[in-house]
């Protein structure tokens, strides 16, 4: 077990951090956004229990959401990212003694086709990818039940079905390649195999992605986008999606229960 001094030294050695993760009383990783507040919104659209499920998180950063999935009972969680972030994630894993979580250096474009997962968490990733549509197709091939995709999105309703290429930077971040409209994102998910797709916007008063985040211009003079959470399901029959039918908000209102195969 690491001492408090050793934890603080390792946090400093592994800077910079993208995620703010509470480690113990008085100690958190110095990420710029409150990751717990994001989880408080995202978890409303996940199954409450993940027992018996395998979860995949490409672009896991320091592993906060992967670790939360394990806390919900997932049998196995795989998070992949660049070496820097995986070193951070493995530190948190060691401190929390999270045995069912595996963090590996990897790329979504090089995932073994034999890997299969029930749920994929694609959180704050897709706009960082140079080839997002290819990545979504690979994710779909790996995912049997559900994707939760959180992303920056274009807020202008005239551009809801468009995808914009970011040639330089967006929000002073040179790793951003694309911004998509809400319907564009949903259409891409449907086209790669997620038959039911529904989007949820962060409330305007949300402390992480509230009005200050989405109003006005970015540092580059571009109109600001905001954050969107999109839920995609592979199957719509209750026998196969099980608890998802009753646990995802408004899902039961949008599926014709009379046409469901309840014996699946």
Identify low-pLDDT runs. Answer: 254-264
Based on CA atoms alone, the radius of gyration comes out at 19 Å
Give the overall average pLDDT.
Answer: 89
**Domain module count:** 1
Distance between the termini: 47 Å
Query: What is the SS-derived class?
Result: alpha/beta
Coarse morphology: globular
User: Would you count the extended β strands for me?
Assistant: 13
Assess the beta-strand content as a share of residues.
15-25%
Question: Secondary-structure element order, as H and E?
Answer: HEEEEHEHEHEEHEEEHEHEHHH
Q: For this structure, what is the CATH class?
A: Alpha Beta
Q: In the CATH hierarchy, what is the architecture at level 2?
A: 3-Layer(aba) Sandwich
Count every helix, treating DSSP H or I runs of 4 or more residues as helices. Answer: 10
Biggest sheet overview: 9 strands, mixed
By CATH's scheme, which homologous superfamily applies? Vaccinia Virus protein VP39
Share of residues in helices: 25-40%
CATH topology value: Rossmann fold
General description of the model:
This protein is of the alpha/beta class and 264 residues long. It is globular and about 55 Å long. It has one domain: Vaccinia Virus protein VP39 (Rossmann fold), CATH 3.40.50.150. Strand 6, helix 4 and strand 7 form a beta-alpha-beta unit. The strands form three sheets. Strands 5, 6, 7, 8, 9, 10, 11, 12 and 13 form a nine-stranded mixed β-sheet that branches. The C terminus is likely disordered. The chain has ten helices and 13 strands.
């Amino acid at each position: 077990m690491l001492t408090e001094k050793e934890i603080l030294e390792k946090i400093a050695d592994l800077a910079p951090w993208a995620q703010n993760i509470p480690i113990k009383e008085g100690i958190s990783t110095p990420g710029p956004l409150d990751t717990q507040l994001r989880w408080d919104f995202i978890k409303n659209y996940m199954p409450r229990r993940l027992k018996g499920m395998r979860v995949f998180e490409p672009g896991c950063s320091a592993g906060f959401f992967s670790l939360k999935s394990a806390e919900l009972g997932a049998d196995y969680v795989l998070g992949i990212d660049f070496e820097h972030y995986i070193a951070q994630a493995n530190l948190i894993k060691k401190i929390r003694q999270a045995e069912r979580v595996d963090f590996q250096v990897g790329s979504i474009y090089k995932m073994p086709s034999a890997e299969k997962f029930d749920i994929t968490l694609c959180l704050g990733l897709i706009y960082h990818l140079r080839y997002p549509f290819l990545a979504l197709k690979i994710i779909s091939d790996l995912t049997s039940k559900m994707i939760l995709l959180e992303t920056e999105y274009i807020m202008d309703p005239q551009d809801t079905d468009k995808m914009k290429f970011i040639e330089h930077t967006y929000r002073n971040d040179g790793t951003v390649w694309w911004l998509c409209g809400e319907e564009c994102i949903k259409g891409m998910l449907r086209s790669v195999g997620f038959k039911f797709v529904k989007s949820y916007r962060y409330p305007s008063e949300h402390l992480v992605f509230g009005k200050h985040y989405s109003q006005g211009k970015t540092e580059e003079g571009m109109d600001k986008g905001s954050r969107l959470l999109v839920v995609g399901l592979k199957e719509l029959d209750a026998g196969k999606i099980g608890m998802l039918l009753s646990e995802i908000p408004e899902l039961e209102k949008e599926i014709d229960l009379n046409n469901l195969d309840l014996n699946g």
